[in-house]
Amino acid sequence: MLRALTGRFRRALPRLTPRRAIAGSAALALVAGLTGWAVWPADPGFTFQDRMLTVRSGPTGDEPVMLDTRYFLPDGASETRKVPALLLAHGFGGDMHSVHAQAERLAAEGYAVLTWTARGFGRSGGQIHLDSADHEVKDAQRLLDWLAARPEVRLDAPGDPRVGALGGSYGGALALLLAAQDSRVDAIVPMITWNDLARAFLPNAAGGPVADGVFKKAWAGTFFSSGASGGASGGGASGGASGSPGGGPSGGVPGAVPAGLDPACGRFAPDVCAAFQTIATTGRATPDAVAVLDRSSPARVLDRIKAPTLLVQGLADTLFPLSEADANARGIAANGTPVRVAWYAGGHDGGAGPRTDRDRVDALTREWLDHYVAGTAGTPATSFVYSRVAGFDAMDRGLVTNAYTIADYPGLTGEPAVAVGVAGPPQRIANPPGGNPAAISSLPGAGSALSFVLGAAVSDLPGQHASFVSEPLADALDVGGSPRLRLRAASPTGEAVLFVKLYDVDPDGGGTLSEGLVAPVRLTGLPATIDDAQPVTVTLPGIVRRIDEGHRLRIVVATSDQAFAGPAAPAVYTVAVEPAVSLPVPGGTPIASPDAVWRWVLAGLLAVIALGLAAVLLIARARHRRIDRSVSAEHADTPLVVEGLRKEYADGFVAVSRVDFTVRRGQVVGLLGPNGAGKTTTLRVLMGLTQPTRGEIRIFGHRLTPGSPVLSRVGALVEGPGFLPHLTGEQNLRAYWKATGRPWADARFEEALEIAGLGDSVHRRTRKYSHGMRQRLAIAQAMLGLPELLVLDEPTDGLDPPQIAEMRRVLQRYATDGRAVLVSSHLLAEVEQTCTHAVVVNKGTIVASGPVEEIVGDSPTVQLDVDDPAAARAVLDGLDGARFLAEADNGGLVVDLTGTPRRELVAALVRAGVGVDRVVPRRRLEDAFLALVGDNSRGSGDR
Predict the structure, then answer these.
(1) Over the Cα atoms of the chain, what is R_g?
(2) Could you tell me which residues belong to the region Disordered (predicted)?
């Protein structure tokens, strides 16, 4: 056998000739070469080395500290081919590994890149001083010295490397502070960083001194816990250079404090630790604590920054919002230094942002560095760039953003602005004792994503918030910046801590708090009554958001927030909001996305598809002209006539062999059959969901064709109910009816609801419906317009017994006034009680059809209700023409009479002293069904 097969195989192969051998060898060589090229690792274009460097810093400049460093060198860099350099700093709680991917990209672009683990983190020594000028900034200066000594690094002067500095969050502040302290820095790109560290952690949206700020306890606690262990938890509390969470050190026990350190402070310097402990304990800042944070604030040295600055700030950032970049931009631009501001849809709560924004930020960064550091590109623009979320990517379901540019940076509250009125009376709200329970608007690193995790928990608590709402917007607003409003408050203690929020409320009442951003306000010197209160201006966090037409604004003023420290003493405040909220709408010119070229490709594909569809439509129209549109006068008043129906698939499977039946007005016809008998296929053909192989279907005399107008006289539930979960039942029904192109007045909505028995549930969102309610809604959808023929596939599927009984009444009520129902069901008892007629299908053919009572027929089996079942069985054993079959559910006896008349059976029982209460026929539709289809009733499977 094997030899025969081998011979056949050899004969099937072409004969090997020298020419074929050479061609085959060349093809194999080409395939091997392509495969090797595909799998062989590409040259990255750089190398890197790790080393521990000892630098001297501190107030006197002679304190040694070991820094863990990694140096990336592009290929070809040498003493004769010098390259520009970059210092790339990581985020708080991370280390040099956090920025490895960005360093690789920059090195591949031709830069020598030095990354390092900041003092107090990972394997580096020293303590954390929060980017102080005497410690972290001097450390960076010593690294500049090291770069200046490298033979492959380009110099502007002896000891002055051609260098840029960039980083995110902690690293971004370092870039700002380093540029202010060391003029050798040629350009900087600080990302998602701060301006004033004291105000960042003690904000007050109503202005005033830092001492009146509201402590951002959640973020401060996250920072402190991460720094106390030197980043040993393996995750950064803030972003890396790209805005993504910083990675952990190369080793260490998660959450462990290094040996020999005070567990209360860990690797923090004593004065930094004391400042945190003081603020965390009291919720207020002391002058000493403010002084510690001030020395780490770029705000005090902005006037000394001469290096061109690209400021990138995240929209999804409850730690360092847009106001921090705004203050930095204004302070640096006042020196005449080139400044560019870019907002993107990421940040401490949003990571690196959507792919479209990552590409855009990378392009802006390269453009900035290539000009001001490498000198290989033209002068970049200083125009303002911002992003707005536009939707979801069809490929990976990630967010997609659109970008806009404005020639001059407008600031957060710049013109133009739109005033939107909000209404609501003065309201009394309570501050809970101990500040608990508190509303949850955001969590560190989560921001607005928290709402997807906690759902309804992300809300304002009853009794603890006041609400002021606008009318629906007549036109959409593209907000970009910080909304402002005027607030009045009264307090019996003379002081109040409040949290102001702006919600975008959709027409269904669902509110969205952009990125979880909240404006904390501490007000002092308040009167006891609201009539005596003076208004104060509250500046909300900057947002970029489109508020659609028909949406409302809701201003919420709350007394508590889990992310902030509030007063512990219980109190009741009264608050009021002035009628108008000012919303900045900067506008701007759209910028093409980096992948805009694909839009042209997509346009070409769409054009090809459109031409193809046009050709298909022309062919379909030509075929449509040939379709038989004749109306059979004989069946013009008959809802449904099926003649010779056959459905055979391409693989030869015959789902329906031959089906013939008729549904007349006033009838409820049950379509019965075992699994695989062809019921569902028959219904699919009836509704035009699939085409028959042969046969004819006429609806009110019209031959059924795809898109036939006569289908408007048919309602159907065949493929199961499918509704949009965020819409109410009524909205789903309206959307369905609108898709039919018919006026709503023709829907007979109220009548369909009454027949289906939906009641007030039709006004609830369908995601809250039970399975039974969805079935009722599907029935109501099929009944819209009160079609003359209703076709239903398993309408009682998943319903409980009371719902099944109600559905029975629904169908019987519907088949009045000349309407008809065709229903497929496997519940034979329900069909027997509901349907007037039945059609039994087995293996694709009709085995019985007609009135249900005719199909059931006379019964040779009876049920006896007697007072003594045991004695009755003894009598039955002595009769030749009667056979006991089973006990009935009520205790009676089921008997098969094979020759004994019923009267003789009753007489025999009475003679034996057995009381006979009732003798009734036993046969049911189920019995007739089993007799018709037999035990071997399983089909080949419906399709």
Answers:
(1) 40
(2) 234-255
At residue 853, φ and ψ (nearest 5 deg) are -65, -30
Residue partners of 846: CB distance under 8 A and separation at least 6: 658, 659, 660, 661, 839, 840
pLDDT at 941: 40
User: Model pTM?
Assistant: 0.62
Strand residues in 29-111 grouped as ranges (E)? 46-57, 63-74, 85-89
Nearest CA-CA partner of 172 in 187, 189, 196, 185: 189
Q: Which amino acid would we find at residue 615?
A: A
**Secondary structure of 325-350 as H, E, C letters:** HHHHHHHHHCCCCCEEEEEECCECCC
What is the maximum alpha-carbon separation in the chain? 131
Q: Which residues of 248-286 are buried (b: 16+ CB within 10 A; e: fewer)?
A: bbeebeeeebeeeeeeebbbbbebbbbbbeebeeebbbe
Query: Residue 188 pLDDT > 60, yes or no?
Result: yes
* Local structure of 176: helix, strand or coil: helix
The answer to whether the beta carbons of residues 274 and 222 sit under 8 Å apart is no
Helix (H) or strand (E) holding 238: strand 235-239
Answer whether 215's CB lies under 8 Å from 202's CB: yes
Distance between CA atoms of 362 and 353, rounded to whole angstroms? Answer: 12
Q: What is the mean pLDDT of the chain?
A: 83
Q: Does position 908 have pLDDT exceeding 60, yes or no?
A: yes
Q: Which amino acid is at 333?
A: A
- Residue 674 pLDDT > 50, yes or no? yes
| Cα distance between residue 220 and residue 231, in whole Å | 15
pLDDT at residue 78 in the model: 95
Give me 941's structure tokens. Answer: 């499977």
Q: How many CB atoms lie within 10 A of CB 379?
A: 10
